[in-house]
Automatic annotation (TrEMBL):
<dbReference type="InterPro" id="IPR032710">
    <property type="entry name" value="NTF2-like_dom_sf"/>
</dbReference>
<dbReference type="InterPro" id="IPR037401">
    <property type="entry name" value="SnoaL-like"/>
</dbReference>
<protein>
    <recommendedName>
        <fullName>SnoaL-like domain-containing protein</fullName>
    </recommendedName>
</protein>
<feature type="domain" description="SnoaL-like">
    <location>
        <begin position="12"/>
        <end position="134"/>
    </location>
</feature>
<dbReference type="Pfam" id="PF13577">
    <property type="entry name" value="SnoaL_4"/>
</dbReference>
């Protein structure tokens, strides 16, 4: 096994933190309808793939449209992402996987529960890590339920 320098090891740690911030930023951008934050997470030529009727969004303009599609589908969402793994393929490329659970409010007030896995490709270009590709695999979307939503504190 080749001994890595302190600089290489530090770069990987910093890269892991930057990539983790992408995954968290995705949830924050979607859940708070912060389109500008959401768009900063993607490279201009990135792919955001949501099979099952939501669509494939390739390029930053289409990724912007994805937020309109999500807004038509749900009044609001709350995502929790876990089990995030990252594997590096060189200093500027990595693949990741994470699982997500979301509570999604319909426009009529009903709520659905959603489970999904995100398979990601990350690239560092011009010193910045961003999504190059995100594939969403939804495992289930429950029927809408009438539950009492609490007002934020």
């Amino acid at each position: 096994m080749t001994q890595r320098s302190i600089e290489e090891r530090l770069d990987e740690l910093e890269s892991r933190a930057a990539i983790a911030a992408l995954v968290a930023g995705y949830c924050e951008g979607v859940d708070h309808a912060n389109v500008e934050l959401f768009l900063r997470l993607w490279h201009e030529d990135a792919s955001y793939l949501i099979p099952g009727g939501r669509g494939d969004f390739v390029g930053i303009d289409r990724i912007r449209e994805s937020q309109e599609v999500i807004g038509r589908a749900w009044a609001s969402t709350k995502h929790w992402t876990t089990n995030h793994t990252i594997a590096f393929d060189g200093p500027d490329r990595a693949a990741g996987r994470s699982d997500a659970f979301a509570v999604c409010e319909h426009h009529d007030g009903r709520v659905s529960l959603v489970s999904a896995t995100y398979d990601d490709e990350y690239e560092r270009r011009d010193g910045t890590w961003r999504f190059a590709k995100r594939l969403v695999t939804r495992w289930f979307v429950s029927d809408g339920q009438d539950i009492k939503l609490l007002e934020p504190f």
